[in-house]
Amino acid sequence: MQKLSAPEREEVFAEIAATIGELTPDYSQAGPVGTKFYEEVVAEAPALAKAFVQDLRRSLG
After folding, report:
1. Between 20 and 30 A from 30 (CA), which of 5, 37, 44, 61?
2. In this structure, is residue 14 part of a structural domain?
3. Is residue 1 a part of any domain in this protein?
């Protein structure tokens, strides 16, 4: 990542955020606990993606 130019890094950051933000529920997990967990992860995914990319930007400059 550090070898990439700033515009290239921004492109990678956007791809990471989009990938994390597009998680869908995994209903293959049997039982209400698994289903609830994945629903919560999906609900939080966009915010987690944004925070992850901000941290990545900060650490890579």
Report:
1. 44
2. yes
3. no
Give the Cα separation of 48 and 50 in Å (integer).
5
Q: First vs last Cα of the chain: how many Å apart?
A: 10
Q: What's the domain range around 15?
A: 6-60
What is the residue whose two structure tokens read 């293959």? 28
For residues 45 and 23, what is the distance between their CA atoms, to the nearest angstrom? 7
What pLDDT, on the 0 to 100 scale, is given for residue 29? 58
Q: What is the pTM of this model?
A: 0.42
Question: Would you state the structure tokens that stand for residue 6, as one six-digit string?
Answer: 């700033």
pLDDT, position 54? 85
CA distances from 46 to 11, 14, 32 (A): 17, 12, 23
